[in-house]
Amino acid sequence: MAAKSVQTLLEDLRLVSEERYVLVQAVRDLVRATLPDISEEVKYGGILFASSGQPFGGVFAYSQHVSVEFGAGALIDDQFGLLEGSGKGRRHLKLRGIDDIAAKKLAAYLPLALAAASASQAR
Fold first, then answer.
1. I need a surface site. Which of 28, 76, 88, 115 has the fewest CB within 10 A?
2. Is 118 exposed, middle or buried (0-12, 13-18, 19+ CB in 10 A)?
3. What is the pTM of this model?
4. Rg of the chain over CA atoms, in angstroms?
5. CATH number given to 6-122
6. How far apart are CA 89 and CA 86, in angstroms?
7. Under a CB-based contact definition with an 8 Å cutoff, are residues 24 and 10 in contact?
8. Nearest-angstrom CA–CA distance, 42 and 20
9. What is the mean pLDDT of residues 47-71?
10. Torsion of CA 22, 14, 64, 75, to 10 degrees
11. Where are the domains of the chain?
């Protein structure tokens, strides 16, 4: 079976929830505006992001929220105290509405997530 494309995933999401579709699109737009050379792939039921070939996070739609996941999030110096999760590596931001993108300072976390992912690769 062929891997699902980003467009197909988005179309499927839109059928289920217009609100979460809009939120995922807003996250994608912010990632592209904030970081250089972004690529996307569908994996683990969401859209994974990489910058200049370095994977650093992804966006996943759930029934009640959208989660922006950072694979090396535990390495981020969380100056805002907004990251959730307590596992060995991953951290996330839960977005319940469009206003959460600004309220949870997603634009500030994106370069931190990329730097953390690069640092974890260098280890």
1. 88
2. middle
3. 0.93
4. 14
5. 3.90.1150
6. 8
7. yes
8. 16
9. 96
10. -60
11. 6-122
